[in-house]
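**Tokenised fold:**
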Amino acid sequence: MSSNATVATTIFAAFMLLTVALGLLAVRGRKSRAEGIAEWSIGGRSFGTVLIWVLMAGEGYTSFSYLGAAGWGYNHGAPVLYVIAYLSCGYAIGYLADPTLWAYARRHGLVTITDMVAHRYGRPWLGTLVAVLATVCLLPYIQLQITGMGVVVATISYGAISLNWAYFIAFAVTTGFVVVSGLRGSAWVSVLKDVLVIGTLGFLAVYVPLHYFDGYGPFLDRLVAEKPAWLTLGGHGGSGLNGTWFATTSLLNSLTVVIFPTTVAGYLGARDADALRRNAMLLPFYNVLLFVPMLLGLAALLVVPGLTGAGSNLALFKLVVDSLPAWAVGVTGVAAALSSIVPMAVFMLVIGTMWGRSVLGVVPALTGRPRRQRLAAQVVVVVAGALALVMTYAAPNTLVRLSLISYEGMAQLVPMILLGLMWRKLTLWGALSGLVAGGTLVCALVFTGNDPLWGGVNAGALALGVNLAVALAVSWLGPEPADPRPDEEVLATDDPVAGPGPSESVVGGRG
């Protein structure tokens, strides 16, 4: 092992140990409260503005931000700005919707989207169905984070750590602290991750243009003169990522991010509704950091041309490894690795909670027993992570192909969850019919290569429109037995004085 590799891997190993230690310290002295699933999965609804901010920023700022954003900038250019557009719009929608959904979940003792739909429509089996669908959509994200961290670790170690070992390290570190500390551990690790992300990207935003181009002026002059196609919304490469695609994708994703299971886990951990409103105002400032890897991807286009395929995702790290000392490479790699670990932990946690509550939770031995549900959820966390790890080794392209449809697939739950919790007249069969219609259409379009279609329309947005139309038509025209429950039991309202809700309740039972 070279001296550079020794320095970088030592720094990386030290920070991984610190990550596990932070996860364990997060629950120190909270043993009695941590017995229930609500403490483990949503931090006992006790997070203030700061912890909610770092957690949700950590969950949203993934390895894509270091690898994918730079790679998209390298390959296409301006279309990558859709990420900033949809996140900012999503936070605006969240400012209105999140406090309302938080109050509904708190009032009824709910901890996942599966709890919400089961309670709203009065059908525990519906929670099971949503848990299965959401798991199919989330597993690719776990696999992609494992893959992203593997690529980062193999690169910053100058090849001393193989991809296979890097994949296993990602799985082991994340599983180790999330099983023990749950969402609280993820929030604590997010603090470390955010400090490193802000520090490294702030440094690179200044260093790379000065080192390679003598400043932003010469860099931007060269970019305009040599790569003008990368500065238009259509981007480079004729991929159809035009203004229509930008608008429809931003709209779809901004709605979806509000009900995305990992986002829900983050805001259900809030202490009160005002913490969520403040968080929605603060999160867009974190988006400024996304400009850095995008710009560095464009810089790499001029410095290391010719990267193709998956190699373009290493555009940023090519600049880092080639120009910085080993210790700086190690610190930058740790920031990128934690950008994989934190969201991966939340994805695994959410899958475990959904299954512990809505799938295994309906088993008589677990119904009304929060400690047993928590143990079942922890087992599912390990199984889900191990499945993603095995698929990364054995069939790396299988889950990656599923990721093509995962976000657009999750979007089809927007009417069932968001509209259903705000509008009583949306019926069970209306919501289900819309879900089937939208899900079938998006699968057909994506897997036949028709995404985008019609000059740039996002297939998921079109499917969501069909989903909504079918849901409304069936709700208005189809039969539905009257729900005897009053509106306050069925609908979400922003009630700042809502009681603490059923203690660790399960849909259909109480703890």
